[in-house]
Amino acid sequence: MTEHNGHGYDAIFVGCGVIGLASAWRAARAGARVCVLERDRPAAGATGVAAGMLAPVGEASWGEESLLALNQESLRCWPDFAADLEADAESAIEFAVRGALHVAVDRDEAEELRRRYELHRSLGLDSEWLRGKDCRALEPGLATAIRGGAHVAGEASVDPRRLVAALLTALDQLRVEVGSGAEVVGAERDGEVWRVRTGDGGEHEARVLVLSAGCWSGQAGWVPEESRPPIRPVKGEILTLRGPADEPVCERIVAGERVYMVPRADGRLIVGATVEERGFDTTVTAGGVHELLREAYRLIPEIAELELAEAGAGPRPGTPDNAPLIGWSATEGLLIAAGHYRNGILQAPITADSVAALLAGEAPPVDLEPFSPLRFVGLRTEPALEA
Ligand code: GLY
After folding, report:
1. 212 to each of 215, 217, 355, how far by Cα in Å?
2. What does pLDDT average to over the chain?
3. Residue of minimum CA distance from atom 3 in ligand 1
């Protein structure tokens, strides 16, 4: 990997998921000299199995108002982010404001969904309660048993695979190198500079290191202990079904209590996702596939006619409070952008702009205080089952 003569990089990003890629792209676009190092290959973690749901209201939960505000702000950034990226990469990423319909099939689910809808209303979110027949008027493929739903017209989706491909192209256009198979095995601070060694024999220098290694961020041995974030892998299994593009089983994101479905323009339907505490295990299990198909079928029986095209599993980067870490760590020159749990694709634009601003010595576009890595200093966590 070539370095910029004499001074090394302004920043090296360690980790090549959507957060590392998007942040490196925004920083490079703003004039920073950056590179990205990746232990495996781009999008080898959560990004590679993400459904691409951009759904702040659907993800809203009690006591998580700061997280909701971040998610909403990032959704507001998405149209410009997508337009810039599509222009830079000259390729489409399928960003689409489809809307989402959260539905309940039985009485228990209806009670729970109604509580969620009341939460939406109390937070002033744009969510509309619909009776079962009104849900089916919007999405005729829904089961006749549907008792009601919350319609959130502003929610959106993107194709994460196209997104990653576009980010890699955009970085290439800016001559930013992305090193796959380059695991950071050592990093020492020497005055104002980090000296970084990778397992493939590479040596690099940078003013700042950005830890953007998703669920592996908590395992990074080169990160001083006081700054190592308490991030754990949370397994998600996900399916891709395929049907005719001109007869989709749904137009919107359709979500139930234990499943969500995200349609793609080419006729694919992404069905996600289990939530399992299994360490770094990414086995696709019969139980996981069964659960997803059973729950999807309860909402839209027609999915039984679709081809089962793919099944995958990946580790989400979970944090103790479900919120990401974005900002300076307790270690000088070490920035963290990791722990985006269920919302990495959604939060990519706001994280990337925040990281680019911090690297440039500017104020970030949002208050990052609730997401400061410093909130976890001193918190001890058990190691994950298997690294
Ligand atoms: N964003 C939804 C999930 O992580 O399953």
Report:
1. 9, 7, 11
2. 95
3. 342
